[in-house]
Amino acid sequence: MGYKNYNSYGFNIIAAFDNDSSKIGSIMNNIEILPIEKLTNMISRMHINIGVITTPAETAQQIANLMISGGIKAIWNFAPVHLKVPENIIIENEQLSQSLGVLTHRLASLSIKS
After folding, report:
1. Which residues contact residue 50 at a Cβ distance below 8 angstroms, ignoring those fewer than 6 apart?
2. CA-to-CA separations, 37 to 30, 33, 63, 84, in angstroms, rounded
3. Is 75 exposed, middle or buried (0-12, 13-18, 19+ CB in 10 A)?
4. What is the pLDDT of residue 66?
5. Which of 39, 44, 88, 114 is the most buried (most CB within 10 A)?
6. 114, 17, 9, 13: which is closest to 64 by C-alpha?
7. What is the pTM (predicted TM-score) of this model?
8. pLDDT tens track for 27-47
9. Of 98, 95, 68, 100, which Cα lies nearest the Cα of 82?
10. CB of 44 closer than 8 Å to CB of 67
11. Is 62 strand, coil or helix?
12. How far is CA 24 from CA 2, 16, 47, 81, in A?
Protein backbone atom coordinates (compact mmCIF):
# COMPACT_ATOMS: atom_id res chain seq x y z
CA MET A 1 0.00 0.00 0.00
CA GLY A 2 2.94 2.30 0.46
CA TYR A 3 4.23 2.10 -3.10
CA LYS A 4 3.31 5.40 -4.76
CA ASN A 5 3.99 4.47 -8.40
CA TYR A 6 1.10 2.01 -8.83
CA ASN A 7 -0.96 4.89 -10.23
CA SER A 8 1.46 5.28 -13.14
CA TYR A 9 0.49 1.72 -14.16
CA GLY A 10 -3.23 2.47 -13.90
CA PHE A 11 -3.52 0.56 -10.62
CA ASN A 12 -5.25 2.47 -7.86
CA ILE A 13 -5.56 0.96 -4.41
CA ILE A 14 -8.91 2.17 -3.13
CA ALA A 15 -9.41 0.08 -0.02
CA ALA A 16 -7.70 -2.26 2.41
CA PHE A 17 -9.26 -4.90 4.59
CA ASP A 18 -8.23 -6.69 7.75
CA ASN A 19 -9.71 -8.85 10.48
CA ASP A 20 -7.54 -7.31 13.20
CA SER A 21 -9.80 -4.94 15.17
CA SER A 22 -6.79 -2.83 16.19
CA LYS A 23 -6.15 -1.99 12.50
CA ILE A 24 -9.75 -1.48 11.36
CA GLY A 25 -10.58 2.20 11.01
CA SER A 26 -6.96 3.28 10.85
CA ILE A 27 -5.60 5.11 7.82
CA MET A 28 -2.54 4.01 5.86
CA ASN A 29 -1.38 6.21 2.98
CA ASN A 30 -4.80 7.90 2.84
CA ILE A 31 -6.60 4.53 2.66
CA GLU A 32 -8.91 3.44 5.44
CA ILE A 33 -8.59 -0.13 6.62
CA LEU A 34 -12.03 -1.70 6.60
CA PRO A 35 -13.36 -4.89 8.20
CA ILE A 36 -13.05 -7.98 6.02
CA GLU A 37 -16.84 -8.40 6.17
CA LYS A 38 -17.17 -5.43 3.78
CA LEU A 39 -14.86 -6.91 1.12
CA THR A 40 -17.34 -8.80 -1.05
CA ASN A 41 -19.91 -6.01 -1.12
CA MET A 42 -17.35 -3.34 -2.00
CA ILE A 43 -15.92 -5.42 -4.86
CA SER A 44 -19.40 -5.88 -6.29
CA ARG A 45 -20.63 -2.35 -5.68
CA MET A 46 -17.52 -0.61 -7.06
CA HIS A 47 -16.87 -3.08 -9.92
CA ILE A 48 -13.34 -3.78 -8.73
CA ASN A 49 -11.42 -6.06 -11.08
CA ILE A 50 -8.14 -6.79 -9.29
CA GLY A 51 -7.64 -7.95 -5.73
CA VAL A 52 -4.34 -8.18 -3.89
CA ILE A 53 -3.79 -10.85 -1.26
CA THR A 54 -1.09 -10.29 1.36
CA THR A 55 -2.38 -12.60 4.08
CA PRO A 56 -0.73 -15.56 5.76
CA ALA A 57 -1.01 -18.81 3.78
CA GLU A 58 -3.70 -20.26 6.03
CA THR A 59 -6.22 -17.49 5.25
CA ALA A 60 -5.37 -16.72 1.63
CA GLN A 61 -7.79 -19.20 0.04
CA GLN A 62 -10.66 -17.89 2.15
CA ILE A 63 -9.89 -14.33 1.06
CA ALA A 64 -9.59 -15.41 -2.58
CA ASN A 65 -13.01 -17.07 -2.32
CA LEU A 66 -14.52 -13.88 -0.88
CA MET A 67 -12.97 -11.82 -3.68
CA ILE A 68 -14.26 -14.19 -6.36
CA SER A 69 -17.76 -14.22 -4.88
CA GLY A 70 -17.71 -10.41 -5.06
CA GLY A 71 -16.83 -10.50 -8.75
CA ILE A 72 -13.06 -10.03 -8.83
CA LYS A 73 -11.53 -11.01 -12.19
CA ALA A 74 -7.84 -11.12 -11.26
CA ILE A 75 -5.81 -11.75 -8.11
CA TRP A 76 -2.29 -10.62 -7.36
CA ASN A 77 -1.25 -13.15 -4.73
CA PHE A 78 1.62 -12.45 -2.34
CA ALA A 79 0.60 -15.21 0.08
CA PRO A 80 2.99 -18.17 0.12
CA VAL A 81 0.39 -20.63 -1.14
CA HIS A 82 -1.04 -21.84 -4.44
CA LEU A 83 -4.67 -20.71 -4.66
CA LYS A 84 -7.41 -22.78 -6.25
CA VAL A 85 -9.47 -20.50 -8.46
CA PRO A 86 -11.88 -21.00 -11.38
CA GLU A 87 -10.36 -20.99 -14.87
CA ASN A 88 -11.85 -17.58 -15.67
CA ILE A 89 -9.92 -15.91 -12.82
CA ILE A 90 -6.48 -14.54 -13.67
CA ILE A 91 -3.94 -15.15 -10.94
CA GLU A 92 -0.41 -13.85 -10.60
CA ASN A 93 1.61 -15.44 -7.81
CA GLU A 94 4.47 -13.43 -6.39
CA GLN A 95 6.84 -15.86 -4.75
CA LEU A 96 9.06 -13.65 -2.64
CA SER A 97 10.82 -16.66 -1.09
CA GLN A 98 11.76 -17.92 -4.56
CA SER A 99 13.13 -14.50 -5.50
CA LEU A 100 15.19 -14.48 -2.31
CA GLY A 101 16.43 -17.97 -3.15
CA VAL A 102 17.56 -16.80 -6.59
CA LEU A 103 19.37 -13.81 -5.08
CA THR A 104 21.19 -15.86 -2.45
CA HIS A 105 22.13 -18.51 -5.01
CA ARG A 106 23.49 -15.88 -7.40
CA LEU A 107 25.35 -14.17 -4.56
CA ALA A 108 26.89 -17.49 -3.50
CA SER A 109 27.94 -18.17 -7.10
CA LEU A 110 29.54 -14.74 -7.30
CA SER A 111 31.46 -15.36 -4.05
CA ILE A 112 32.82 -18.66 -5.38
CA LYS A 113 34.17 -16.95 -8.52
CA SER A 114 35.95 -14.20 -6.55
Report:
1. 11, 72, 73, 74, 75, 76
2. 21, 12, 10, 21
3. buried
4. 97
5. 39
6. 17
7. 0.81
8. 988 889 999 999 999 999 999
9. 95
10. no
11. helix
12. 17, 9, 22, 25
